[in-house]
Amino acid sequence: MRYRIRHTSRYAYASMVPFSSHRFFLRPREDHHLRLLRFDLRLLPQGRLRWARDLHENFYATATPEGESRQLAVAMEAEVDMLQDNPFDFILDPHAVHLPLRYQPAEASALAPYLCRQGGAASTAVDRWIQALFPGGLQGGTVAELTRLNQAVHQVLRYTRREESGIQTPDQTLQRESGSCRDFTVLMIEACRACGVAARFVSGYLHVQAESGTTRADNAMHAWAEVYLPGAGWKGLDPTHGIFCGDGFIPVAVALDPASVSPIQGSYVSPRPVENELHATVEVTRIS
User: Fold this and answer.
1) Cα(49)–Cα(6) distance, rounded to whole angstroms?
2) Which CA distances in Å does 226 have to 2, 151, 177, 241?
3) What are the φ/ψ torsions at residue 67 (nearest 5 degrees)?
4) What's the burial of 280, exposed, middle or buried (CB within 10 Å: 0-12/13-18/19+)?
5) CB 63 within 8 A of CB 95
6) Where are the beta strands (DSSP E) in the chain?
7) Backbone phi, psi, residue 254, to 5°
8) Ramachandran region of residue 95, left (φ > 0), alpha (ψ -120 to 50) or beta?
9) Cα–Cα distances in Å, from 263 out to 16, 31, 251, 277?
10) SS3 of residue 198 by DSSP
11) Is 62 exposed, middle or buried (0-12, 13-18, 19+ CB in 10 A)?
């Protein structure tokens, strides 16, 4: 299946401003079932793009928009080819079939950062939430239990589209009983780690079927979690929709810290705040 992605962000400023260096995490992340066919990234004002890979093998560009302007426009267009993906087409290693997971020493060493609770300490609110939902604990088959946990986030909490920047902590999401896709994802990651399952954050795009009627990923970037399952590798879980990730999920970047892979990072340069507005559009279209 082939998809076209168009992502445009326009920042409008009340006065002329110069710009700091910007960092862009917008390039789809290639793997064994996703191939990048075409990619174009343009800035206005223009700036020379320099490409690099971060610690998680994400590609990102840096540039400093030239001169001063009342606007900054960032336009990305890409085409990707994806193999049809059955998210359950895997065989777990014997030690990963049931929860709690017992990673092998080499796995546990490599996965230590992805097992560490947020801030290095356990969230008692998340632990209490899991205990209330699953009084007997999550001790069955790994896939079945992770499915239950993923669907619990989807079903128990209320989805809200938050345009403001930043991500709620897991405790804030539980207290408010609502959040955006990135808030749901951070809570899901914390809940997985509470159960001893290594997890990380994914930023990307999602193709939404027109007939699905959902608006949870329309006209915006999407976020979901990945968990490491021995024998299967990193597998995507989307708590916003309560499903394992399959066709139509197009990753851009993975990270321990969600803020580190915000799609556009940078600012204007001014000794005082300048009133500004952001208008963004995202279109993901299946073209074959």
Assistant:
1) 19
2) 23, 15, 22, 14
3) 70, -155
4) middle
5) no
6) 2-18, 22-24, 34-44, 50-53, 59-63, 68-82, 158-159, 178-179, 199-206, 222-229, 233-238, 243-244, 249-255, 264-265, 276-286
7) -120, 155
8) alpha
9) 24, 20, 12, 17
10) coil
11) middle
Q: Report pLDDT for 208.
A: 84
Beta bridge partners of 72: 11
Mean pLDDT by 10 residues, the chain (288 residues): 96 98 98 96 98 97 98 98 92 95 96 87 84 89 96 95 83 94 96 96 90 58 97 97 95 96 96 95 93
Can you give the pLDDT at residue 122?
Answer: 63
List the domains of the chain with CATH numbers. Answer: 2-83+262-286 (2.60.40.2250), 94-246 (3.10.620.30)
pLDDT for position 139: 86
Q: What is the pTM of this model?
A: 0.94
Question: For residue 172, what are its two tokens?
Answer: 């804030």
